[in-house]
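Practice problem: predict the structure.
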Amino acid sequence: MGNVKSSAGQKTDSMETGENAGTDVMTSVELRNGVQMPMVGYGVFQITDGAQCEQCVGDAIAAGYRMIDTAAAYYNEEAVGKAVRASGVDRKELFITTKLWVQDAGYDSTLRAFDESMKRLGLSHLDLYLIHQPFGDYYSAWRAMERLYQEGAVRAIGVSNFPPERLVDLCMNQEIPPMVDQIEIHPFFHQREAWGPLSEGQKDIFHHKTLVKIAENHGKTTAQVVLRWHLQRGIPAIPRTVHKERMQENLAIRDFVLSEKEMEMINAMDIGHSEIIDHRCFCMRFSYKVLLNRHCTFVGKRRTM
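Answer:
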């Protein structure tokens, strides 16, 4: 999570769980401009069937999710918008994110892409708009996003998948610094809002002996343990599932607390690099170009929980 305030800017709920009674956990994080962003959201990557996506988002909102994360490159913004409008939940209670794809980087093209995304979503405003990848003319794209922010079309702007050096450079050379850097974070790859919070199911994470042991201690699933680990580190997470019961399960992480020792055990799982995608690799940039030409957004192996 990039450029957020300290715990003084975070909302909390009080939990009462035996010896951990009174422990506070965050329900939202305050961005640098004062906007509150939920700590746990619902992601729709690779849910490309419109009807299924609309159903899943509707189920997620009904289960209690208030942050929905989509992107132009996911090809499901229209379905997300339909579900949001049909949910019956006040728009002010929801936090909707979408992203600018690589081929639309540039000043005028970013403005056009934003308008197209908003038409597909069918919403009056957007809560968070992100540059999806650090490729193309993202400096001009950022200037366009600054304009959208200043005009009130979007409540917050940020980036996704930006490595530290590119993020710092962008911050130093723009009028408004990014409010979010949405990056890959999970027990096998620590960084400091996270996509892939459950490691896309890779490395058999749901059966990892460390996580299984901790889960058994609390009567929880390994997925809940991992999401709780994110929460206690103060990092917003966006898990994805098409299963209603797992949507509910992924939210049920506020009635237990990981001990300091358990947190250290999970921290020790870090292998220091991503095995999902390397955004700095020349080969990956080439792969994106090929995928772009094929109008395909699938990169690496993904697993739906």
